[in-house]
Amino acid sequence: MLTELEKYTEESAEKAAKILKNGGIVAIPTETVYGLAANALDENAVRSIFVAKGRPQDNPLIVHISNFEMMKPLVTDIPELAKRLAEQFWAGPLTMIFDKTEVVPEETSGGLSTVAVRMPANEAAREIIEKCGFPLAAPSANTSGKPSPTKAEHVFEDMNGKIPLIIDDGECSVGVESTVICFRNGKIHILRPGGITREMLAEFAEVEVDKAVEAAPKADEKVLSPGMKYKHYSPKADVFIVNAHGDDFKKFCQDNGGEKTIFLSCGEREGCMDYGETSEIQAHRLFALLRHADEIGAEKVYVEIPSKYGVGLAVYNRLLRAAAFRIIETS
Ligand code: TXA
Ligand code: MG
Protein backbone atom coordinates (compact mmCIF):
# COMPACT_ATOMS: atom_id res chain seq x y z
CA MET A 1 0.00 0.00 0.00
CA LEU A 2 1.26 3.47 -0.86
CA THR A 3 1.29 5.75 2.18
CA GLU A 4 0.67 9.42 1.46
CA LEU A 5 1.87 12.16 3.77
CA GLU A 6 -0.21 15.32 3.36
CA LYS A 7 -0.21 18.64 5.19
CA TYR A 8 -3.44 19.44 7.01
CA THR A 9 -5.71 21.47 4.73
CA GLU A 10 -9.44 21.53 4.09
CA GLU A 11 -8.89 19.12 1.19
CA SER A 12 -6.66 16.65 3.01
CA ALA A 13 -9.15 16.61 5.91
CA GLU A 14 -11.88 15.82 3.39
CA LYS A 15 -9.78 13.00 1.93
CA ALA A 16 -9.12 11.58 5.42
CA ALA A 17 -12.84 11.65 6.23
CA LYS A 18 -13.64 9.83 3.00
CA ILE A 19 -11.22 7.00 3.79
CA LEU A 20 -12.57 6.77 7.36
CA LYS A 21 -16.18 6.68 6.13
CA ASN A 22 -15.22 3.74 3.91
CA GLY A 23 -13.95 1.81 6.94
CA GLY A 24 -10.26 2.64 6.41
CA ILE A 25 -7.63 3.94 8.82
CA VAL A 26 -5.78 7.28 8.72
CA ALA A 27 -3.09 8.75 10.97
CA ILE A 28 -4.22 12.09 12.38
CA PRO A 29 -2.50 14.77 14.47
CA THR A 30 -3.63 15.55 18.00
CA GLU A 31 -2.11 17.94 20.56
CA THR A 32 -0.66 14.99 22.52
CA VAL A 33 0.75 12.49 19.97
CA TYR A 34 -0.32 11.37 16.48
CA GLY A 35 -3.20 8.88 16.47
CA LEU A 36 -4.10 5.99 14.22
CA ALA A 37 -7.79 6.58 13.62
CA ALA A 38 -10.75 4.47 12.50
CA ASN A 39 -14.52 4.57 12.98
CA ALA A 40 -14.87 3.64 16.67
CA LEU A 41 -18.28 2.08 16.02
CA ASP A 42 -17.14 -0.21 13.19
CA GLU A 43 -15.49 -3.35 14.56
CA ASN A 44 -13.83 -4.26 11.26
CA ALA A 45 -12.25 -0.83 10.90
CA VAL A 46 -11.06 -1.02 14.51
CA ARG A 47 -9.55 -4.47 13.93
CA SER A 48 -7.30 -3.05 11.23
CA ILE A 49 -5.82 -0.60 13.76
CA PHE A 50 -4.70 -3.53 15.93
CA VAL A 51 -3.14 -5.19 12.88
CA ALA A 52 -1.26 -2.07 11.71
CA LYS A 53 0.13 -1.43 15.21
CA GLY A 54 0.74 -5.03 16.20
CA ARG A 55 -1.22 -4.23 19.36
CA PRO A 56 -2.49 -6.82 21.89
CA GLN A 57 -6.28 -7.27 21.45
CA ASP A 58 -7.07 -6.76 25.13
CA ASN A 59 -5.68 -3.22 25.16
CA PRO A 60 -8.68 -0.89 24.70
CA LEU A 61 -8.70 2.21 22.49
CA ILE A 62 -9.63 5.79 23.29
CA VAL A 63 -12.70 7.12 21.48
CA HIS A 64 -12.25 10.68 20.16
CA ILE A 65 -15.19 13.06 19.82
CA SER A 66 -15.52 16.57 18.42
CA ASN A 67 -18.47 17.76 20.53
CA PHE A 68 -20.08 16.78 23.81
CA GLU A 69 -23.30 15.50 22.21
CA MET A 70 -21.33 12.84 20.37
CA MET A 71 -20.51 11.12 23.68
CA LYS A 72 -24.11 10.61 24.85
CA PRO A 73 -24.96 7.45 22.83
CA LEU A 74 -21.65 5.83 23.86
CA VAL A 75 -22.04 5.91 27.65
CA THR A 76 -24.73 4.84 30.13
CA ASP A 77 -24.27 7.72 32.52
CA ILE A 78 -22.23 10.93 32.77
CA PRO A 79 -21.39 11.75 36.41
CA GLU A 80 -21.69 15.42 37.47
CA LEU A 81 -17.95 15.51 38.16
CA ALA A 82 -17.21 14.38 34.60
CA LYS A 83 -19.40 17.18 33.25
CA ARG A 84 -17.48 19.75 35.27
CA LEU A 85 -14.14 18.34 34.13
CA ALA A 86 -15.28 18.33 30.50
CA GLU A 87 -16.32 21.97 30.84
CA GLN A 88 -12.90 22.90 32.18
CA PHE A 89 -10.51 20.65 30.25
CA TRP A 90 -12.19 19.73 26.94
CA ALA A 91 -11.14 20.15 24.24
CA GLY A 92 -7.79 19.00 25.65
CA PRO A 93 -5.56 16.14 26.78
CA LEU A 94 -7.93 14.50 29.28
CA THR A 95 -9.47 11.05 28.72
CA MET A 96 -12.34 9.95 30.96
CA ILE A 97 -13.64 6.40 31.43
CA PHE A 98 -17.36 5.66 31.52
CA ASP A 99 -19.62 2.60 31.49
CA LYS A 100 -20.28 1.90 27.83
CA THR A 101 -23.48 1.19 25.93
CA GLU A 102 -23.88 -1.50 23.25
CA VAL A 103 -23.13 1.11 20.60
CA VAL A 104 -19.41 0.69 21.39
CA PRO A 105 -18.10 -2.60 19.98
CA GLU A 106 -15.99 -4.97 22.10
CA GLU A 107 -13.07 -4.50 19.70
CA THR A 108 -12.92 -0.83 20.70
CA SER A 109 -13.25 -1.44 24.44
CA GLY A 110 -10.84 -4.38 24.47
CA GLY A 111 -13.62 -6.55 25.89
CA LEU A 112 -14.17 -4.22 28.89
CA SER A 113 -17.60 -2.90 29.92
CA THR A 114 -16.18 0.64 29.92
CA VAL A 115 -15.12 3.11 27.24
CA ALA A 116 -12.44 5.82 27.31
CA VAL A 117 -13.48 9.13 25.74
CA ARG A 118 -11.59 12.30 24.90
CA MET A 119 -12.11 15.47 22.87
CA PRO A 120 -8.78 16.49 21.31
CA ALA A 121 -7.81 20.16 21.21
CA ASN A 122 -6.05 19.88 17.85
CA GLU A 123 -8.16 21.59 15.21
CA ALA A 124 -7.30 19.13 12.41
CA ALA A 125 -8.38 16.20 14.59
CA ARG A 126 -11.70 17.83 15.49
CA GLU A 127 -12.34 18.90 11.90
CA ILE A 128 -11.82 15.34 10.63
CA ILE A 129 -14.12 13.86 13.31
CA GLU A 130 -16.71 16.52 12.51
CA LYS A 131 -16.57 15.66 8.79
CA CYS A 132 -16.97 11.95 9.57
CA GLY A 133 -19.93 12.51 11.88
CA PHE A 134 -18.91 9.52 14.02
CA PRO A 135 -16.34 9.14 16.83
CA LEU A 136 -12.83 7.91 16.00
CA ALA A 137 -10.97 5.25 17.93
CA ALA A 138 -7.31 6.26 17.92
CA PRO A 139 -4.36 4.81 19.75
CA SER A 140 -0.97 6.43 19.35
CA ALA A 141 0.19 5.90 15.74
CA ASN A 142 3.40 4.02 16.57
CA THR A 143 4.20 0.34 16.19
CA SER A 144 3.22 -1.19 19.54
CA GLY A 145 6.08 -0.90 22.03
CA LYS A 146 7.92 1.92 20.26
CA PRO A 147 8.01 5.55 21.42
CA SER A 148 4.81 7.43 20.50
CA PRO A 149 4.99 9.65 17.40
CA THR A 150 5.10 13.40 17.97
CA LYS A 151 5.81 14.28 14.32
CA ALA A 152 4.24 13.01 11.09
CA GLU A 153 7.68 11.69 10.06
CA HIS A 154 7.68 9.37 13.09
CA VAL A 155 4.35 7.94 11.94
CA PHE A 156 5.78 7.45 8.46
CA GLU A 157 8.73 5.48 9.90
CA ASP A 158 6.38 3.04 11.61
CA MET A 159 3.37 2.95 9.28
CA ASN A 160 4.81 3.30 5.78
CA GLY A 161 3.10 0.72 3.55
CA LYS A 162 0.48 -0.14 6.19
CA ILE A 163 -1.96 2.78 5.97
CA PRO A 164 -3.08 4.98 3.06
CA LEU A 165 -2.77 8.46 4.57
CA ILE A 166 -1.00 10.49 7.25
CA ILE A 167 -2.24 14.03 7.94
CA ASP A 168 0.71 16.23 8.92
CA ASP A 169 0.05 19.13 11.29
CA GLY A 170 3.60 19.62 12.52
CA GLU A 171 4.93 18.78 15.98
CA CYS A 172 2.47 17.84 18.71
CA SER A 173 2.37 20.62 21.28
CA VAL A 174 2.08 18.49 24.45
CA GLY A 175 4.20 15.53 23.33
CA VAL A 176 2.99 12.86 25.79
CA GLU A 177 -0.37 11.08 25.64
CA SER A 178 -3.49 12.31 27.41
CA THR A 179 -4.19 11.90 31.11
CA VAL A 180 -6.49 8.89 31.58
CA ILE A 181 -8.84 8.96 34.58
CA CYS A 182 -11.73 6.96 35.98
CA PHE A 183 -14.07 7.79 38.85
CA ARG A 184 -14.06 5.79 42.08
CA ASN A 185 -16.22 6.68 45.09
CA GLY A 186 -16.44 10.30 44.03
CA LYS A 187 -12.67 10.50 43.63
CA ILE A 188 -10.64 11.02 40.49
CA HIS A 189 -8.38 8.04 39.90
CA ILE A 190 -5.43 8.68 37.53
CA LEU A 191 -4.59 5.62 35.46
CA ARG A 192 -2.11 7.38 33.18
CA PRO A 193 -0.65 10.83 33.91
CA GLY A 194 -0.51 13.36 31.07
CA GLY A 195 -0.94 17.02 30.13
CA ILE A 196 -3.83 17.61 32.55
CA THR A 197 -2.00 17.21 35.84
CA ARG A 198 -3.04 15.82 39.20
CA GLU A 199 -2.62 19.35 40.61
CA MET A 200 -5.10 20.71 38.04
CA LEU A 201 -7.59 17.89 38.74
CA ALA A 202 -7.30 18.37 42.51
CA GLU A 203 -9.24 21.64 42.17
CA PHE A 204 -12.32 19.52 41.39
CA ALA A 205 -12.17 16.46 43.64
CA GLU A 206 -9.83 14.29 45.67
CA VAL A 207 -7.28 12.68 43.36
CA GLU A 208 -5.57 9.31 43.69
CA VAL A 209 -2.79 8.10 41.40
CA ASP A 210 -2.95 4.43 40.45
CA LYS A 211 -0.04 2.42 41.81
CA ALA A 212 0.82 1.21 38.28
CA VAL A 213 1.84 4.79 37.38
CA GLU A 214 5.09 4.63 39.34
CA ALA A 215 5.68 0.92 39.85
CA ALA A 216 6.01 -2.22 37.76
CA PRO A 217 2.89 -4.41 38.01
CA LYS A 218 3.55 -7.85 39.49
CA ALA A 219 3.30 -10.89 37.21
CA ASP A 220 -0.39 -11.83 37.62
CA GLU A 221 -1.69 -8.57 39.04
CA LYS A 222 -4.89 -7.26 37.48
CA VAL A 223 -4.31 -3.71 36.24
CA LEU A 224 -7.11 -1.19 35.80
CA SER A 225 -5.61 0.22 32.61
CA PRO A 226 -4.41 -2.63 30.40
CA GLY A 227 -1.90 -0.39 28.58
CA MET A 228 0.12 0.03 31.78
CA LYS A 229 1.20 -3.61 31.90
CA TYR A 230 3.06 -3.63 28.59
CA LYS A 231 6.67 -2.66 27.99
CA HIS A 232 6.31 0.62 26.22
CA TYR A 233 7.83 3.62 24.60
CA SER A 234 11.10 1.79 24.08
CA PRO A 235 13.80 2.52 21.56
CA LYS A 236 16.18 -0.31 20.64
CA ALA A 237 18.80 1.12 22.99
CA ASP A 238 18.81 0.19 26.67
CA VAL A 239 17.40 3.11 28.65
CA PHE A 240 18.27 3.79 32.30
CA ILE A 241 17.02 6.50 34.65
CA VAL A 242 19.83 7.96 36.73
CA ASN A 243 18.76 9.24 40.14
CA ALA A 244 21.19 12.15 40.27
CA HIS A 245 21.19 15.87 39.53
CA GLY A 246 23.70 18.62 38.88
CA ASP A 247 27.29 17.75 39.66
CA ASP A 248 26.37 14.18 40.64
CA PHE A 249 24.84 13.57 37.21
CA LYS A 250 27.86 15.24 35.57
CA LYS A 251 30.18 12.88 37.44
CA PHE A 252 28.02 9.90 36.44
CA CYS A 253 28.35 10.92 32.78
CA GLN A 254 32.13 11.28 33.06
CA ASP A 255 32.44 7.83 34.63
CA ASN A 256 30.08 6.03 32.23
CA GLY A 257 30.77 7.53 28.81
CA GLY A 258 31.30 5.26 25.82
CA GLU A 259 31.13 5.25 22.04
CA LYS A 260 27.49 4.21 21.75
CA THR A 261 26.25 5.81 24.95
CA ILE A 262 24.21 9.00 25.16
CA PHE A 263 23.09 11.08 28.10
CA LEU A 264 19.87 13.09 28.37
CA SER A 265 20.06 15.94 30.84
CA CYS A 266 17.43 18.28 32.29
CA GLY A 267 18.86 21.48 30.78
CA GLU A 268 22.09 22.16 28.91
CA ARG A 269 25.11 20.22 30.13
CA GLU A 270 28.39 19.48 28.39
CA GLY A 271 28.46 16.12 26.62
CA CYS A 272 24.70 15.60 27.08
CA MET A 273 21.60 16.01 24.95
CA ASP A 274 19.30 18.50 26.59
CA TYR A 275 15.78 17.14 27.02
CA GLY A 276 14.57 20.33 28.64
CA GLU A 277 14.74 22.37 31.80
CA THR A 278 10.99 22.33 32.48
CA SER A 279 8.58 19.39 32.56
CA GLU A 280 6.62 20.89 29.66
CA ILE A 281 9.69 20.97 27.42
CA GLN A 282 10.70 17.47 28.52
CA ALA A 283 7.24 16.15 27.62
CA HIS A 284 7.49 17.87 24.25
CA ARG A 285 10.93 16.41 23.41
CA LEU A 286 11.15 13.03 25.13
CA PHE A 287 9.72 10.69 22.49
CA ALA A 288 11.54 12.38 19.61
CA LEU A 289 14.84 12.03 21.49
CA LEU A 290 14.21 8.35 22.22
CA ARG A 291 13.63 7.80 18.49
CA HIS A 292 16.73 9.85 17.71
CA ALA A 293 18.76 7.51 19.95
CA ASP A 294 17.90 4.66 17.56
CA GLU A 295 18.71 6.71 14.48
CA ILE A 296 22.23 7.39 15.68
CA GLY A 297 22.71 3.77 16.76
CA ALA A 298 22.93 4.40 20.50
CA GLU A 299 23.13 1.26 22.64
CA LYS A 300 22.76 2.91 26.04
CA VAL A 301 20.74 5.97 27.01
CA TYR A 302 21.17 7.38 30.53
CA VAL A 303 18.53 9.90 31.53
CA GLU A 304 18.74 12.40 34.38
CA ILE A 305 15.69 11.76 36.58
CA PRO A 306 12.93 14.31 35.87
CA SER A 307 10.81 16.14 38.42
CA LYS A 308 7.55 14.30 39.19
CA TYR A 309 5.57 17.49 39.68
CA GLY A 310 2.90 18.61 37.19
CA VAL A 311 3.45 17.20 33.69
CA GLY A 312 6.70 15.80 35.13
CA LEU A 313 4.74 12.82 36.48
CA ALA A 314 3.80 11.91 32.87
CA VAL A 315 7.42 12.28 31.74
CA TYR A 316 8.58 10.07 34.62
CA ASN A 317 5.85 7.48 33.93
CA ARG A 318 6.85 7.16 30.24
CA LEU A 319 10.55 7.08 31.04
CA LEU A 320 10.06 4.34 33.64
CA ARG A 321 8.52 2.14 30.97
CA ALA A 322 11.11 3.03 28.34
CA ALA A 323 13.71 2.06 30.95
CA ALA A 324 11.88 -1.15 31.89
CA PHE A 325 11.79 0.27 35.46
CA ARG A 326 15.58 0.41 35.82
CA ILE A 327 16.74 3.24 38.05
CA ILE A 328 20.41 3.67 38.85
CA GLU A 329 21.23 5.07 42.28
CA THR A 330 24.54 6.92 42.36
CA SER A 331 25.06 7.09 46.11
O1 TXA B 1 -3.28 11.30 23.89
C1 TXA B 1 -3.79 10.21 23.68
O2 TXA B 1 -4.57 9.66 24.49
C2 TXA B 1 -3.45 9.51 22.36
C3 TXA B 1 -3.97 10.36 21.22
C4 TXA B 1 -3.83 9.71 19.88
O3 TXA B 1 -5.29 10.74 21.48
N1 TXA B 1 -3.97 8.18 22.34
C5 TXA B 1 -3.43 7.18 23.09
O4 TXA B 1 -4.00 5.95 22.91
O5 TXA B 1 -2.49 7.34 23.83
P1 TXA B 1 -3.32 4.60 23.36
O6 TXA B 1 -4.19 3.55 22.81
O7 TXA B 1 -1.91 4.59 22.96
O8 TXA B 1 -3.47 4.58 24.91
C6 TXA B 1 -4.74 4.40 25.51
C7 TXA B 1 -4.59 4.07 26.97
C8 TXA B 1 -4.07 2.66 27.17
O9 TXA B 1 -3.18 2.66 28.27
C9 TXA B 1 -5.34 1.90 27.47
O10 TXA B 1 -5.10 0.73 28.20
C10 TXA B 1 -6.14 2.93 28.25
O11 TXA B 1 -5.85 4.15 27.60
N2 TXA B 1 -7.59 2.68 28.15
C11 TXA B 1 -8.37 2.80 27.05
N3 TXA B 1 -9.64 2.43 27.33
C12 TXA B 1 -9.67 2.09 28.64
C13 TXA B 1 -10.68 1.62 29.54
N4 TXA B 1 -11.92 1.43 29.14
N5 TXA B 1 -10.31 1.35 30.81
C14 TXA B 1 -9.04 1.54 31.23
N6 TXA B 1 -8.04 1.99 30.44
C15 TXA B 1 -8.35 2.25 29.17
MG1 MG C 1 0.19 4.19 22.90
Verbal overview:
This protein has 331 residues and is of the alpha/beta class. The model has no long low-confidence stretch (mean pLDDT 95). It has 10 helices and 16 strands. A hairpin with a 6-residue loop joins β2 and β3. The strands form 2 sheets. It has an 11-stranded mixed beta sheet with strand order 1-8-2-3-7-4-6-5-9-10-11, sandwiched between helices. A 5-stranded parallel beta sheet has the order 14-13-15-12-16, with helices on both faces. It has 2 domains: 4-213, DHBP synthase, CATH 3.90.870.10; 238-329, 3-Layer(aba) Sandwich (Rossmann fold). α1 (10-21) crosses α5 and α9 (279-295) packs parallel to α10. Magnesium ion (MG) binds next to loops.
Quick overview of this protein structure:
Helices cover 30% and strands 21% of the residues.
* Reported CATH architecture of the largest domain: Alpha-Beta Complex
Assign the CATH superfamily of the largest domain: DHBP synthase
Assign the CATH class of the largest domain. Alpha Beta
Question: How confident overall, as mean pLDDT?
Answer: 95
Strand pairing plus helix content: what structural class?
alpha/beta
What is the helix fraction of residues, given as a range?
25-40%
Q: Quick one: biggest sheet? A: 11 strands, mixed
DSSP strand count? 16
